[in-house]
Write a structure and sequence with these properties.
Blueprint lengths: L2 E6 L7 H14 L3 E6 L13 H6 L8 H9 L2 E4 L11 H19 L9 H25 L6 E5 L4 H12 L3 E7 L6 E5 L6 H11 L5 H16 L28 E5 L21 H14 L3 E5 L9 H17 L4 E3 L7 H7 L2 E4 L3 H8 L4 E3 L12 E2 L19 H12 L1 E3 L17 H6 L7 H18 L12
Parallel strand pairs: 1-2, 1-4, 2-3, 4-5, 7-8, 7-10, 8-9, 10-11, 11-12
Antiparallel strand pairs: 5-6, 6-13
Helix pairs in contact: 1-3, 4-5, 4-6, 5-6, 8-13, 9-10, 12-13
Length: 486
């Protein structure tokens, strides 16, 4: 019998309780012995339900122990990782392997791409994260000395404790799998051998994992992926719930001129993953858009730009910097129509009506390629070596010749979409198993109630500051630009 250990803590993934309970159930059904290792003792910032008494006072139900009881009922062993008996400092090689994940976690927490803007707060949190990384590593090292599994299943692998578990497992020769909330299907989870943000490894394994699929199966999976993404209130695109209904372009266009649509990207914290993502030479995404727009204007191509909706969730400093860059871009290209981050314009309507599509790294680029649109990207993306796209990674890459459209071969994008689809497994549980409300769309009173959880006061202040920033970002109204979409 194969022994499997699963690393877990509340908040490890979105829908973390439902994901891990479903994962455990599936592993047991395969005949494996399963031990779940809860490493929440080494949590710096807890992301969980409000206290039970608070939920009850607000006429709600929450059972934080229900998932543990269910996992035990299924037949798995549930253990809490214990503080290590000997907290030996990590060596230089281990620190180097884990370092980028600590920085990535800081970028996520502070919602910015410049940690110097938060100064001492970042320094203090970094020190706390490293302390918990060492405790996680040494605790698991002691546990595996007597309970070594054949396979260790780790959530995502991006953040610091997740990475520590992976580095340890690989040093001990333990096979590693990674799990995450579903990317391609609603109410599913991902399980695979590659870290979800590893663009090189994922594209490298794609041919092998899709080799058994014929062309019609790949096409059908890709269409299902696209339908799920573009469907109204899509379960796989969280931002689409606030958009207007998509309008699919017809062969007859009201404006006979070509239309180029630019889709900005939200800063993603996996940029901290090193060389595989640092392949461009742009200072910011609007620098490359500016150069491209200059050439397109000479061809009388109409220009539109959609700002990523996730801009609303960023820090005020990051938000103001992006808005300043957008306004500067608008000043250089007055005809540019801007659809702001808080516009109800449906991005898929823009994509459908576009003749040319430009993205930084957004998944919209993959969707555009699936629709047969010529797509240019200006930074590394997860599908850039598979899909039939063009890369504009430096000023020297941009010329009239490189901006000419082409007849798109959709097969590469289809194969990548199919690759995502086949790695997902259905959830057997939902939020209703653990609480009376959906944490992903919690009422404001319950969001406030989470402040009463066991966390430092500095974190509670941070949460209030973050919510205030999001409220202000969402209420933004441009003073120097016109949004024709509203």
């Amino acid at each position: 019998m194969t022994s499997v250990a699963v690393i877990y803590y509340p908040g490890a993934t979105e829908k973390s309780r439902s994901v891990v309970a479903s994962l455990v159930a599936d592993q047991l059904s395969l005949g494996h012995s399963v031990t779940l290792i809860d490493i929440s003792a080494f949590t710096t910032i807890r992301q969980d339900f409000p206290p039970t008494w608070v939920a009850r006072a607000l006429s709600h139900r929450v059972d934080p122990d229900a998932s543990r009881a269910e996992i035990v009922r299924l037949g798995a062993t549930y253990v809490f990782a214990q503080p290590p008996h000997h907290l030996v400092a990590l060596d230089d090689q281990q620190v180097q392997a884990i370092g980028a994940s600590v920085e990535s976690e800081l970028l996520t927490y502070f919602r910015t791409d410049r940690l110097e803007e938060v100064g001492a707060r970042a320094h203090r949190l970094r020190a706390k994260l490293w302390n918990e990384v060492a405790r996680t590593y040494r605790s698991l090292e002691e546990f595996f000395s007597t309970h070594r599994p054949h396979t260790l299943i780790i959530p995502n692998g991006r953040t610091s404790r997740q990475k520590a578990a992976r580095v340890l497992a690989e040093s001990l020769g333990i096979d590693v799998l990674l799990y995450e909330n579903g990317r391609a299907r609603p109410d599913h989870y991902y399980l695979g051998t590659t870290q979800p943000h590893d663009r090189i490894a994922s594209q490298a394994e794609l041919p092998l994992l899709t080799a058994s699929l014929n062309a019609s199966e790949i096409s059908a999976l890709a269409q299902e992926f696209l339908d799920l993404r573009m469907g109204e209130g899509s379960g796989t695109n969280q931002f689409s719930t606030t958009w207007s209904q998509a309008r699919i372009a017809t062969s007859e266009k009201a404006n006979p001129s070509q239309r180029a649509v630019f889709f900005s990207s939200s800063f993603d914290e996996y940029l901290a993953f090193g060389e595989m993502w640092m392949i461009d030479s742009w200072n910011h995404q609007f620098e490359d858009f500016d150069q491209i727009m200059t050439l397109l204007e000479q061809k009388n191509i109409s220009l539109e730009m959609r700002l990523h909706p996730n801009l609303a969730n960023k820090s005020r400093a990051y938000f103001r910097r992006e808005i300043a860059n957008v306004k500067s871009l608008k000043a250089k290209h007055p005809p540019l129509v801007i659809h702001w981050h808080n516009s109800s314009t449906n991005s898929y309507s823009l994509l459908s009506q576009a003749d040319l599509v430009f993205v930084e790294r957004s998944t919209t680029g993959l969707e555009g390629s699936l629709l047969g649109k010529p797509v240019w990207i200006t930074q590394a993306s997860q599908w850039d070596e598979v899909a039939d796209i063009r890369r504009l990674l430096a000023p020297s890459d941009i010329s009239p010749q490189t901006l000419k459209p082409w007849e798109v071969d959709c097969s590469g994008a289809q194969r990548f979409a199919a690759y995502w689809m086949i790695q997902e497994h259905p959830l057997h549980y939902s939020w209703k198993n653990w609480s009376s409300w959906n944490p992903e769309s919690a009422p404001i009173v319950l969001k406030i109630a989470t402040l009463l959880g066991r966390n430092p006061w500095s974190h509670r202040v941070h949460l209030l500051r973050a919510e205030w920033s999001k409220w202000r970002n969402r209420r933004f109204s441009p003073s120097l630009t016109r949004d024709d979409s509203n």
